[in-house]
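Researcher: Batch entry, complex prediction.
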Amino acid sequence: MIIVLKPHTSSGEAREFVRVLEKQSVSIDFSEGAAQIVLGLVGDTAHIDEEALAAHHLVEKVIRVQEPYKRANRLFHPDDTIITIPSKGGPAGVIGGKRLGIIAGPCSVESREQILSLAESVRKAGAGFLRGGAFKPRTSPYSFQGMGPEGLDLLLQAKKETGLPVVTELMDIHQLELFEDVDVIQVGARNMQNFSLLRELGLCRRPVLLKRGLSSTMTELLMAAEYIMAGGNDDVILCERGIRSYDTFTRNVLDLAIIPALKRKTHLPVIVDPSHATGVSWMVPQMSKAAIAAGADGLIIEVHNDPEHALCDGEQSLTPAVFAELMPRLRKYAELEGKKI
Amino acid sequence: MIIVLKPHTSSGEAREFVRVLEKQSVSIDFSEGAAQIVLGLVGDTAHIDEEALAAHHLVEKVIRVQEPYKRANRLFHPDDTIITIPSKGGPAGVIGGKRLGIIAGPCSVESREQILSLAESVRKAGAGFLRGGAFKPRTSPYSFQGMGPEGLDLLLQAKKETGLPVVTELMDIHQLELFEDVDVIQVGARNMQNFSLLRELGLCRRPVLLKRGLSSTMTELLMAAEYIMAGGNDDVILCERGIRSYDTFTRNVLDLAIIPALKRKTHLPVIVDPSHATGVSWMVPQMSKAAIAAGADGLIIEVHNDPEHALCDGEQSLTPAVFAELMPRLRKYAELEGKKI
Amino acid sequence: MIIVLKPHTSSGEAREFVRVLEKQSVSIDFSEGAAQIVLGLVGDTAHIDEEALAAHHLVEKVIRVQEPYKRANRLFHPDDTIITIPSKGGPAGVIGGKRLGIIAGPCSVESREQILSLAESVRKAGAGFLRGGAFKPRTSPYSFQGMGPEGLDLLLQAKKETGLPVVTELMDIHQLELFEDVDVIQVGARNMQNFSLLRELGLCRRPVLLKRGLSSTMTELLMAAEYIMAGGNDDVILCERGIRSYDTFTRNVLDLAIIPALKRKTHLPVIVDPSHATGVSWMVPQMSKAAIAAGADGLIIEVHNDPEHALCDGEQSLTPAVFAELMPRLRKYAELEGKKI
Amino acid sequence: MIIVLKPHTSSGEAREFVRVLEKQSVSIDFSEGAAQIVLGLVGDTAHIDEEALAAHHLVEKVIRVQEPYKRANRLFHPDDTIITIPSKGGPAGVIGGKRLGIIAGPCSVESREQILSLAESVRKAGAGFLRGGAFKPRTSPYSFQGMGPEGLDLLLQAKKETGLPVVTELMDIHQLELFEDVDVIQVGARNMQNFSLLRELGLCRRPVLLKRGLSSTMTELLMAAEYIMAGGNDDVILCERGIRSYDTFTRNVLDLAIIPALKRKTHLPVIVDPSHATGVSWMVPQMSKAAIAAGADGLIIEVHNDPEHALCDGEQSLTPAVFAELMPRLRKYAELEGKKI
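Model: Structure tokens for the complex:
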């Protein structure tokens, strides 16, 4: 961390300020130039509060050089984190490294028939994971909020029948006991900075799929992962799902450049949700290919047997047939990237 | 709700679609023009899922005419909601109507001495409420997270000594039992769409100060209020605290035009947080005046005895002296708006 | 300007880099700490290209301490710039200092009758300037593009009859010869970075009203002013007119906090356009008051005798009657700010 | 266009309003429902001003169903526009249809040696077009503004020597006479809504590469193209170059989903500028591949022999060696899309 002091700060004032800083267990690199004094903080600055420093009357600017995350930082963990879900009777579900994980399924679990048939369809087409929401965060209190525990139960039956590991969203820490057999716990975009929830997930021993918030920065996404990892849970999958912007031709702006940016900063796997990002199913194939070309470690795609009658987000769901056609094309793009679906 | 069907939809197809829609207990106004069929949904459309409709193969566009919120809607509750906190020994704290409520205090409770002295200062200067955080949502897990239950206790002591009603943030529904003597429960911007939390607050009988999310729309803010109100708690105070944008000269962009917009759409009081919006204390006086001139029902202002050593957000805090000077000036602006502080 | 070199840069490499930098006629403050070398560039760094520096293989970060603008910089010109338009037969039009300038009139000049009657109305109500577009930048080539030279002529007739100085938009440098009697030349938001146009306006001796671009930063706005001032024309009026954001309840987000921010950085006057910012007339009074309370030096307000039949932007125009009612209220807010309309 | 009238509008009022609308040479589809009257405007509504309509006191909402652009609209021109630049001695430069056009070269022409050597390098690597700026739009008046006419001359020499068609930016219509031998005229992002410039380019018979504005919507981009096409010039190449957002890890957010969206709405070719979008060279290869996978018709990539000493935008330029390595990889992605570079 570099602190530029205001011009006309005297050497004495600066030295006194240095003594205050040293109490925060960093050492200070003091550089007195002709015009300005610049302090370099050496050591672990992740715990130092930039904004508190900036409020000091001697400080002109504070520049963070070191990233504020540690466990999520590739600098300290150069090797890619690979998430592997052992599976009974089937191949393991893997995301990261040379394996491109495909998570597919409906937005919401709606009935036993629906989830079992969709699970079978996506498994056949080659998906590695089944998704399906039982607890749904909805903008309106009057919209369908998911089937709840019953939906979760149906999802777990589908897991049993197909052998596919399952991914589903947790909205509230109270629900955690119901999630014992869930393989990957999803944190939705609107909960990305629900710090209480993140902290609790840090204590649990299950991979967490963490969606980027609606307008969160890359650093905020990594700090949210850091909350989980600080508790001891290192299995975090980051998910780009579009950010809010001013244009309305897609629901969100899919920010694919965050993939190479994240891959440089962190060892965690990065997947993409083209369904929620664009909000329209006909864009999903094109943006899925683009995500792979941009270096994604996986995709989470909505597939629904009857999008027109879906209880939520039908507009963005592929039919099983379209999904089955898409998969072989995605494999070719994965191959060009040296990866295997 | 207006549904424009695709050109070339036959009368027969449209009639069949109407029968499906009628099952959602709305009546349909069928308008067949030369070029296109337009359906008007009459009745309570708040429970109808726009996106599900938009996924239907006959539908070209869906346009919501009626707002999706009901209890928060001024149309159904024309009179301003006024929040009154009875106070022992002092005047009641009031927000809404002809009363402009001023909430002041430190970002975080840091010590007994600090909170008692600040409470006394802001009370003397004329604030109607004391704010102070005990549980702090911080971007980094390594930053100071608030004093927790002990901080809450100190805040309540300050309430006792000064008679000021207190406002403090709840991050997690588990904390609710500690909040029994808290007068106004704050929901932070990052939790604005923590729907589990909102639902629980709907069941509690305490006013809720709901901060606008970092990039939430006006409708999303009102829908978040609707979550609370749907549970039976009608005492919601909306708070504009700046939205995320591309420029960096302020921390957020303070969107004062949402005040007249909200006042037209809802009967709920609207207050402004100039401290978090701008992130710099020297802008707070100017933006406080502007907020009053734009029609705000109140302000929530950070005041800290020693901003340079504040454990969080010092850069945006006023000193008690500056706050005391500001208050008489704010009163003059309030008077021009026909309001009383 | 502070340049942080990458860790592990050797002293020798750094010294060599310093020699390269010194050719750009700045002197270098060399600070070698234990961990990192930091260079401080002393002197006029406005001409130094940050991005070119950032491309250098030794450079980790470049931090601009000094602002990149000079003539627009309050540091070098502490006194407020005041724009005065001498007027025959009437009081001078003034913007800046203790005078709050009100510019009013229709979006477009539509007919002789219209502009003369409106000019008379706004003059009576106390406006200091008449606005009216003859050349209109329209999103669609099929929309009304303004009356052109004939419209300009009518505007100048209105100036003659009322004595009000006039403000009108120049879209193309070819039109400049027609603008000889125009008092203030407006540059629209979409042309804020039309650098050829700005450069030409730097050579002309007329005040320029420069509108902030749709998503321009404060620094970009000041650099656009600097383009004009670098040519020798110091009379630039900055205008906040709302920025693009994700919400749609107003056309743009009126960013009033840019007023105190600009007043600190520059000596140039800052006015606000509440009509284009909000896009709806019923918000204009409230946001006009807020703009004054936030420290604006003036307002530019659309007034139209018949908003429903306006050829453009009727939705955001006040009627002359509403404008006349508004003016005395604005005067009260101006007084609180120690200013006179 | 659908106009929803306010509730309680009488039949008589509505009929009168219809008569006014009919004067705009559209026919009206009148639909009187139980609750609300809805008007459908049939015919060419591109010239109708939505905002003017919205200002009418009877109007609740105006919904555009038909797009406001005509010549750029795929509805009326289903076949892809293909831009072909005949070339002496070499293969023609083609963008669109089954041909993926690669435009490469330096940000600025800096010297004869530089541009000739780069032209030769990119030609060998397989680029179809040479880019190079002679007139540069720079945020600061103190930055290098391009070599001007001399730079243009050097670019044309490079064209002569290599046979590559050239693309260069026009900032001002005065420069047009110098551009006689330029093959593709570029309009920069900051000039996307410089309507005077667009109109003049409509009269010229040269393809125009139109960059999306910093925060322009898809419709605004297409309306800017429509300005050019309305003048009779149908050869417009659209270019996505990133949009402004709140995060800073890339200079702009590359919005690749606009490619499928545009391909559906318009017949014009769409290319991508990964260099300006990301602002950092190491992201360019990944985002180039992603752009092709998303369906782009071409790429415009900055290549500089000595990025560290480039006079502008060095940070985002590839070296000729990296570019030469990238090309065969891009060909593989193009093949998967059924295209040829």
